[in-house]
Amino acid sequence: MVPIQMVDLKRQYSKIKPQVDAAIQEVLESAAFINGAPVQQFAKELEQYLGSKHVINCANGTDALQIAMMALGLEPGDEVITPSFTFIATAEVIALLRLKPVFVDIDPRTYCIDPQAIEKAITPKTKAIVPVHLYGHSADMEAIMDIANRHKLYVIEDNAQAIGSHYTTKNGLTKKAGTFGHIGCTSFFPSKNLGCYGDGGAIFTDDDAIAAKIRMVANHGQSQRYYHDTVGVNSRLDTMQAVVLRIKLQLLDEYITARRAVAHAYTSAFAGIPQIIAPYEAPNQLHVYHQYTMQLDGADRNELQAFLQEKQVPSMIYYPVPAHRQKMFEGMTDLNQHLPVTDALTGKVISLPIHTEMDQDQLSHIITSVQSFLN
Ligand SMILES: *Cc1c(COP(=O)(O)O)cnc(C)c1O
């Protein structure tokens, strides 16, 4: 059996090697390493895929979030509501810009921000909400946009883990995750569902004025060449990454199908195991399974991980310490704040390998290993 990895990028590359190698070779020969034609071509193709009016590329997902917050003109001391149960980048950029992170709890089924908790955390200083579509499942965007509209708040979606996911509103309108809020942000880190071969990210919006501001902030605050109207950053997607992304965007829906097949095989195999709570799929959403993260109830997580490791089955804990308990936020938030769902789930979640290249032997081996530990 081919050794099992959390994500198998080598095997994925081997299937697209001829196209990728040719495209990279072309970039080498063109020497247009920065702002080559494929950079804009990719942005246009992603606009089409997402159904978003503007896609602005940038250097990584963390920059995408930072640029989004800068473009909205948030000021030091403004409060930004976000889940604590996320990758640190979401909250880190809030603090970096001297905004105040306000951490709230999540829905135990979806692992995403709880709209009711948002409503309770709103103060006169609240300016924005940053929901995170964790593990590939979108937050409840209809409820969140309703709250945001009533309180005149901005919404920046952290879509780093859910590109390609979609959500259907009560009126039957289906839109891609990341396109409900004022701004959506994503990452093309290699292991993400749409990953490049280095760092990359993108910001999307339907608002022309916000898009213009984002382009300016991402490019040294420049309105026209050598005229700098605002303090910005330097954040670009390079041409090598754009050619890889153009190839992989064509395959994204196939990749999502492959991930979902693995997830559904796990979920049906574990259905009879009372100690496993499988990931939830809201009926109005497409879960794209960036991670297959289940909850253990009444089983020892460390022992399961050790057992799986012995069987050459990797597993991960995303994330062992929630953001609201991280030392970096000392003085900005109460590190002892109790977020019951977040604090409980931090001790219960475990993620199994999931990627686009899992074969039947590997899948059966992972399933049998989990079953034999828990039976
Ligand atoms: C990966 C990720 C980011 C950051 O993306 P980078 O490209 O690594 O900077 C932000 N938020 C979430 C939820 C992520 O998973």
Record the SSE blueprint:
Blueprint: H1 9-30, H2 37-50, E1 54-58, H3 61-71, E2 79-83, H4 89-96, E3 100-104, H5 115-121, E4 126-129, H6 141-151, E5 154-158, E6 166-168, E7 174-176, E8 183-187, E9 201-205, H7 208-218, E10 222-224, E11 227-228, H8 239-269, E12 276-277, E13 292-296, H9 301-310, H10 340-346, E14 349-352, H11 360-374
Helix pairs in contact: 1-8, 2-8, 3-4, 3-7
Bound molecules: pyridoxal-5'-phosphate (PLP).
InterPro entries: DegT/StrS_aminotransferase, PyrdxlP-dep_Trfase, PyrdxlP-dep_Trfase_major, PyrdxlP-dep_Trfase_small
Active site: 192 (proton acceptor)
Keywords: Aminotransferase, Pyridoxal phosphate, Transferase
Descriptive key words:
375 residues; alpha/beta; Aspartate Aminotransferase, domain 2; Aspartate Aminotransferase, domain 1; 7-stranded mixed sheet; binds pyridoxal-5'-phosphate
Describe the model.
The chain has 375 residues and is of the alpha/beta class. It has 2 domains: 9-105 and 113-249, Aspartate Aminotransferase, domain 2 (3-Layer(aba) Sandwich); 252-374, Alpha-Beta Complex (Aspartate Aminotransferase, domain 1). It has helices at 9-30, 37-50, 61-71, 89-96, 115-121, 141-151, 208-218, 239-269, 301-310, 340-346, 360-374; strands spanning 54-58, 79-83, 100-104, 126-129, 154-158, 166-168, 174-176, 183-187, 201-205, 222-224, 227-228, 276-277, 292-296, 349-352. The protein has a 7-stranded mixed β-sheet, with helices on both faces. Strands 12-13-14 form a 3-stranded antiparallel β-sheet, with no helix packed on it. A two-stranded antiparallel sheet has the order 6-7. Helix 3 crosses helix 7. The longest helix is centred in the C-terminal third of the chain and has 31 residues, at 239-269. The radius of gyration is 21 Å and the shape is globular. The model has no long low-confidence stretch (mean pLDDT 97). Pyridoxal-5'-phosphate is lined by residues 60-62, 86-87, 89-90, 132, 158, 160-161, 187, 189, 199, 201. InterPro entries: DegT/StrS_aminotransferase, PyrdxlP-dep_Trfase, PyrdxlP-dep_Trfase_major, PyrdxlP-dep_Trfase_small. Belongs to the DegT/DnrJ/EryC1 family. Keywords: Aminotransferase, Pyridoxal phosphate, Transferase. One of its GO terms (molecular function) is transaminase activity. The modification N6-(pyridoxal phosphate)lysine is found at residue 192.
